[in-house]
User: Fold these one by one.
Assistant:
Number 1:
Amino acid sequence: MYFIFDANMPLRLVKGLELLDQENISGTVKIKIDHSDKVVKIAATDAEIIKYAAKVDAIIISEDDDFKRIKSNKELLKSLGVGYVLYRPPKHGARYWEKVQAFIFGWENLKRKITELTKPFVLIVNKKGEIFEEPL
């Protein structure tokens, strides 16, 4: 399973999850984690990230919900069969530590849920790490 976090997600969170998951002996699925700034380019557009994710069979993780709202990106997700995970921050806005906690609390459930789905899909992760499927 390959995850690409986009530019809206902190690079340190990406590195931390990658390190933590390496030691996960209970995990049955091999995980690879990257950041779009490193594997696509700095300030890559949504479309560039989607196309890259399709090419390498990756799942995008973002805090940017433009992927859902902009019709062309939504259609691109569907046509290229890309999985997308959106971190939905609380109403007061995203705070770094809340993002970290959400992904730490929900990481195992997120990976499990993804193995049950067929791409394309959209999942929402809230600040408690709870995961919800959203229609694409």
Number 2:
Amino acid sequence: MMSVASGRRRALAEWAFRGALAFLLVFQLFVPPALSVADTNDFQKLAGRFCLGPYPQKVLFDYANLHWRFSPQACLDWPFRSSADLAFRAATGLNRVFTSPLDFNLEWMGVVYSVIFFVGFVWLQRSLRAVPFVTSVAAQACFLLSVCNAVYIPYFNSFFFDAMTVAVLAPALVGAGLIALRAEVRGATVALATASLVLLAASKGQHSFVALAFVPLLWLRRGRKVFPQVWVRAAATAAIVAGAAVALGSVPEYYGGQATFNTLFYRILPSVPNPAAYLAETRIPPSYIALVGKHVFLPDTPLSSPEGQAQFRRWFGPSDLGEFFLRHPHLAWRMLMIDLDEASLDRVRMKTGTLEHRLGNYERDTGNAPQSLSHFFCFWPGVKHAVIAHHPRVYLAYILGVMIAPWLLAPRMPGMRALLASVTAALAISLLIVMMDGLDSGRHLMVFNYVLDLLAAAAVTFVVYRLENRAARRDGATRRMPQSEAARTT
């Protein structure tokens, strides 16, 4: 049983970490110059449906824009649906009360996402009360060090769907862990875990599969006497699948054509000796050979319209690209190296030749250069960047090491292998999905890197847990020795 002194020490540590997290969030998101992420034209997928546009003018890629205004001219009804809609509605309600009914301050999105993120961290703290004190401290410190920096947090001040993904990933992983590891799983735990996984599944189509990877944990009862009934687990599964269906079902058909065209024509065919031979394996017209080296966002291609992209998807869709990779594994390897090269860099969005395009964190009036990035609290990202930047093979070795280490270091307890299998599957699936899209690999792999950072933090925590348990066993053995033998041992 925990003593009063131990309980007080643990409570003080928890509040200290909460204060540190609150400082990291507030300083980055709300203290001038507040950090955000530049728009790539994706902001309108959320803001346009609510007739909200940048004010006084649109600035893409180079600078962030925290100031927006409701206007009929900004109405643009994109088909995408996301759980980010819920965050947006909450933010606009707060903005209407505290700011203006006409102007919108993007920092209110930061407020909503910060609350979700903070609540997830508190839930993590409560779950860590079951482990020794030093291990709990190590886990919380690693969490702050690895993911509470300017690589991820500025996304909260944005309209990117990825912001919801990042905000709910921590509570989703905590909930999945509790379902997998606890000897007694109550209905409240399943409800909170399900809510987090539904928000994650519905956040963005390509991230839906991350949430779905944790669904099997609901069905691994392992003879536990206190575990939700079948109908509860079935309802939870249905809710998570429905959340994924919302995000995936709202992705337009032509988006598949965008992704496969960019992969084949912009990334793969320019680097092969005989592009026409590879093109002849597909249903794509031979005349398209003139488009090698181009992507769909250039105005002089047949794919500059949604109709052209939808037609290309019928010729060469995601399943066709998957078969293409299976027939030519060396090209799949080449695509993997391209993706990992971009994702290994310091928040690069994409590379064109030797030019590395990034998304600026600052507004133009701060006086920073275009595409300037904040490096606040970026010790761990800086270490990674120094080692893996421009070294995709080194980065791949790091990925494999981080994925394998928890399997070797994790405590031998029921459910741990199942939990690690779900996390490993989520990482593998998210990487495979990005290989099907030949543009913006660096930004698309942001959530992959986020989960990888959390897995690295878990590996460090497992090491501390082993060391703390070993010290406790040695200390217990010493107390049980006769006094003379204990003295000799000391």
Number 3:
Amino acid sequence: MKYVDEYRSAGIAHALSGEIAALVRLGETVRIMEICGGHTHTIYRHGLEDLLPAEVELVHGPGCPVCVIPMGRVDDAIAIAEQPGVTLATFGDMMRVPGGRGSLLEAKARGADVRMVYSPLDALALARNEPGRHVVFFAIGFETTAPATAVTLLRARTEAVANFAVFCNHVTIEPPLRAILETPGLLVDGFIGPGHVSTVIGTDAYRFIPDQYGRPIVVSAFEPVDLLQSVAMLLRQRREGRCEVENQYTRVVRREGNPRALAAIDETMELRESFEWRGLGSLKRSALRLRPAFAAWDAEALYELPGARIEDPKACRCGEVLTGQIKPWECGVFGTACTPERPLGTCMVSSEGACAAYYAYGRLRRPQEPVVA
């Protein structure tokens, strides 16, 4: 296939739906976790759940980078933004994520200089254009976005841009997956692997899932046909008694990933000893920080930060949504006290959040049981 409309073909989608139905046994339940929030939005935007037999249940995972940032790190970013002479630059989603002291958007309303950018290079350009300000980029994301931050740091060093820094909150995909796989009583039979992360780290990075935990994984692209094909590949593994890493996204993802991107990350960043995750708590060696050689561009070395650990609002169950324990409509405030206009948690804020997907595409209530005559 060559064009995007082929990956949205109704005919191909219905053929795959029939293939999936033939690969399950009547009455069994197969629970598949899509790790990436981008996959979640494709599923509900295109109604893919309605093309799956009742035996296949989709579960949502922790693959949304905005969703996993804890409230304390948002407060740290607000503290930086409120420093005299500082401009904090970040992606649009992060401006609305609630912290203990409100969101960055609210801090902006109070007078802080907070600006939306589309890339870290935009933040570096701000620093060049406004030498009287100190521009700090609030960096988030899995290994997908870490290379862009790394390249920006290398450029800042080469150009000796002294009024630029990075507040690094990049996280890595393996530790949260291990945490989920080690959850007692886990009911997940297979994984749909994140496509964007995999373009950087490759498919070999997931070998531990079948080898150590006995679950298959298929790395998937993001169009409807891609996801249906990935579900079929997982079910075929199950039917044939296989447990492997498979790559559906062969048009982009390679086994070894992107060596140049990985080298840029390794040159500029190193693993933290631990990092707090929303819904998963503190995970060892699960996030990145800047190497000492880049201390001159490290916001955590330049500013004193509160570093507080803040509990999520009691009514918000984002953590359980992120770990696949509940569906969004099982949270008591979903769609009522928590909406995109007034979010209580990150899952309703992010463009990849599961709650935002359910809300945007009308999945506001528990599915109704079929009426029996």
